[in-house]
Amino acid sequence: MVHSFLIHSLLPGTCRVFYSITFCGDIKANGHVEDRSDRKEKLLAIAQRVQSEYSFKRVTQRSELFDELLATSAGYGLNMEGGAFRSLRGEPFDNEKVILWLGRENTGFALISDVHENRILAENTLRLLCKFLQPHIKNTSQGTEPILLVDHIALMVNRFLPNGQLLFLNQKIIRQFEKEMEMLLQT
């Protein structure tokens, strides 16, 4: 099951979370679900780690060949860098989680899931989400535009991750989702 999905900034400096949704909260030892401020701090810690890994990856992979590859693949929407890491128990969640992330320019997308979740399916879902969300998050350097499109983002996230469940999707279902989302976004 997917624990959370978040969209955040990637440029060096202060990391900002533009959008986050948590599908299931951590249950504390006393049986209570964590409060909102704890959840926000945990998601910010994940966003900061993704920002750090993105910056490191950009610095270490800098070459003329890499820049040419990014420029060539830009037309296809494939120029997103990504990675995965595992958060250990207690850092910041009570249980181990796997974090898959993709980043492009100033926008980072992270999918936080349980350790036993199918990672290939989670990565495909994250890539699909990024593909469909990119037009709605064009210029996040201003910081206000993602807030204006929260309804569109929530609609797409809930379509591809209903209640945090990963779906096996083929091309026919994806096209059907596209048509449904176009109709819903027009209203």
Outline the fold blueprint:
Elements: E1 2-9, E2 17-22, H1 36-60, H2 64-73, E3 81-87, E4 97-104, E5 107-114, H3 119-133, H4 145-148, H5 150-160, H6 171-186
Antiparallel strand pairs: 1-2, 1-5, 3-4, 4-5
Structure, described:
By secondary structure, this protein is α+β, with helices and mostly antiparallel strands. Helices cover 43% and strands 20% of the residues. The chain is built from 6 helices and 5 strands; from the N terminus they run ββααβββαααα. The chain has a 5-stranded antiparallel sheet with strand order 2-1-5-4-3, sandwiched between helices. Helix 3 packs antiparallel against helix 5. The longest helix has 25 residues. The chain is globular and about 40 Å long. It starts with a strand and ends with a helix.
